[in-house]
Each structure stands twice: as C-alpha cells, then as structure tokens.
Amino acid sequence: MIYEISVSLLYVFSTSLLYPDIFGLLLLFCWSLVLVGSMIQEYTSRRRDIQELEHVALRAASLASSGMSKDAAETIRGYRSPQVADVLGEIAGSLESNKLHIKLDKILQDAELEMARRLEPLRIGIRVGPILGLMGTLIPMGPALVSLSKGDIQSMASSLIIAFTTTVIGLVVGGICYCSLLIRNRWYHQDLSDVEYVAEILRRSTDAEQVGHS
Fold first, then answer.
1. Residue 205 and residue 108: Cα distance in Å, rounded?
2. What is the model's pTM?
3. Handedness of CA 194, 200, 203, 208 (dihedral sign)
4. d(Cα 88, Cα 199) in Å, to the nearest integer?
5. What distance in Å separates the CA atoms of residue 84 and residue 212, rounded to the nearest whole number?
6. What are the tens digits of pLDDT across the range 45-89?
C-alpha cells in the first residue's frame, strides 16, 4: 500500500514538471537566439589595434614620468576601443590621482572577475540546456508507456514527439552556449592581455620615476 502510494506520488510529481520544463526550454532557446545576435553585434563593434595601443601606453608613460599625470590620463582615454574602454578609464583615473601603484593590481583583478561574470550565463546554459532537454525526454516516457499498455497509439506518439523535440532543443541551447563561451573567452582573454600590457608599461614608468626621485 505504501509502495503504491509512493510510486503514484512520484509519477504525479514528475509529470507535473513537464510544462515548467518545456517553458524553461523555450525561454532558454529564445535567449540563445538573442545570444547569437549579441555576439554578431559585439564582433562587428570590436576594435583592436595593438600598435596604436602600444603607442598610447608609451606616450602616457612618458607624460607620467614627466609629472604630467592629467595629460597622461587623457592620452589613455583617447584610445577608442569599446571592449577595454572602462578598464582603461579606471587606469587613467588612478594615474590622474597619482594612485596607480596602489590601484593597478585591484583594477586588473576586477577586470578579470568581470570577464568571468560575463561568461557565467554561458556556462550555466551549457549545463542547464541539456539537463532540461533530458528531463523533457524522460518525463513523457511514463505517459507514453501507459498509453502503450492501453493501446492508445496516438497519445503515445504525442508523448514521444515531446520527448524527442525537447532533447533537440536542449542540445541546441547547449551547443550555442558552448560555442559562444569559446569565442567570448578568447575575446576577453585577449582584451585582458592588452590591458595588462598597458598596465605593465605604466607600472615600469612609475617605478622608474620613483627611483629617479629617490
């Protein structure tokens, strides 16, 4: 008696999750399509010129070593690149306030954490998409077997269609998120490398300035 009640409750609970599972998959699928569009938009707006960046960093370092911190900060802000503009702006602000040697490591650490934060939804999508797809596959199998035992082929076919389509959608979501993670991870690491290059040039100039004053 207890066993039959437990099995019945588990069956009710599992089948009741089908509609929330389908709704979640639809939301994830729409989000993944938006993600593809945002990646295309980000790709077209990205700008990277390492020679110009090096020139800007060396010019700012020269101005900073001459005691012209404000001009050095404006030189750094003059590098127009949307993907690193915020971080360079923070570096310029610390340079302008003569606190570069104090804030620089913190700025770089925060930039790395921000990069990881922006990639977190993609890592979640890689896992959650296939999980919801698998749930959408397994949940309808119970009603499909019940329909088969009753000879109701039409209901069984409907349950199997739901099972297969949810699997496909879940795999598509996971695939899109995985590809997006690989591409954006490479982009963001390249951006972080560029910022660290600028930071190293400025750090050496400020260290040389401190040695000269001492």
1. 18
2. 0.83
3. negative
4. 9
5. 31
6. 888 888 888 888 888 888 877 778 788 888 888 888 888 888 888
